[in-house]
């Protein structure tokens, strides 16, 4: 097997102790081409990310050995013996692990403060790590001297590099104070800020302002000889000093227990959405016009639109597969009750899938939902039409057989009906058998309408031709059948409209309930992010209310339009009912006249 295809390291150097071991190996995610000043995304790594369905937690680490320890091992990500780190670009672990419902992707970033790399790439790397990670682990010397703070000075003016959205977007900052040999302070956060303030007061203030809740861990000297320090991936756990091991375990478990997903506003990203976000951020950094600037609102908007389209496409394909499978199993035609139950099962399944995948604000989700509903409705109508056609043909075939049995024999010269009563009796039996045998639905009304407008008319013409019916009676009978035909067709359309209205009410109630669940989840996500900005909560609540109002308005417009069509059908039916009643009076008068003669 090609070594590039091996998905794990066969001879591993396990850390053990209280840190869980993770299988896998490192692969390259991003490569930086200094000649053309361009970041290249590796397709293999991107495919792994896109395959993740759970919320993703992105941990960016600037020290390869600590990235290994997060996986319960000393080896995995390559270590460098010289000052300039050996990682080129950004490496990732090829088997992101599941932790408390989140899939953790650890990124090993090239030493951000490597003196041998270009400042252009170092700045891009720092900004990219800040934007794409949900936890950013920055490693500095425990003394926190002027020469130790690295790229933290960029915190002074992040707006120069990042256009910020109206929501929390920066990661949880974790500071690792390496080789810390002083007496432990009461509070490492306070210690770090005080020391940083001494060398760069603006950076200290920026961190306090932008990172409301960051972590600081100290790691003492490892206790290894110099030659071992250059190859820590080959050292065994017992060789490290006990205090170092204890602090490493505390830092790793503390970081993992405080992991949060990568969010877009109040929605956690999955693999697909993060992969798209990464591509958009890289595209921005590769654009020379941007001057190393990422517009987070623009990238978020692009991701939300992309995920909406992917979610709709995926849900639509799910619906089609479900319906086709069910139809293949149970065959057409099927009673409308069974068809509607089948559609409801499919709709509920894909609706949940859609809302699980969709991102963005409540109003954005509501707008995407409208497009999603249109797509599903279009497919439902396609399957509806297939079943309707099958039902119509089934009932029509049944009608043909019953017509031949009860009516057609009396229209031949050899066995012709001899009286009006014989014909009307045969018709009554035919209609009774049809009502008992047909599959119910608007199609049965249309089939009866067809027989009344075609077969009945032809039968009357034949019986009039043979002198069984007088012209006046025949014309009145035709008029009566015409009015009944119109009533049946209008009743069929009215039934379809009423069914459509009931479906809209039911489906919109399901969508409303699912949107409320999504909004509640988003609210909980904001709480989990520990956001202190009350205006952000107010804005989101206003957006939630607007989304619910939009959904209600959408339903009301649909129902109002359908109700108007139903009223029109009822009005037309009343007209034909009067015509039908008048025809019956005419026939009764004609019958009485004939009997009198």
Automatic annotation (TrEMBL):
GO molecular function, one term: GTPase activity
Protein's UniProt keywords contain Coiled coil: yes
Recorded coiled-coil stretches: 473-521, 552-579
Protein name from the UniProt record: Guanylate-binding protein
Species assigned in the record: Gigaspora rosea
Domain Guanylate-binding protein N-terminal: 39-258
One Pfam family of this chain: GBP
Keywords, sorted A to Z: Coiled coil
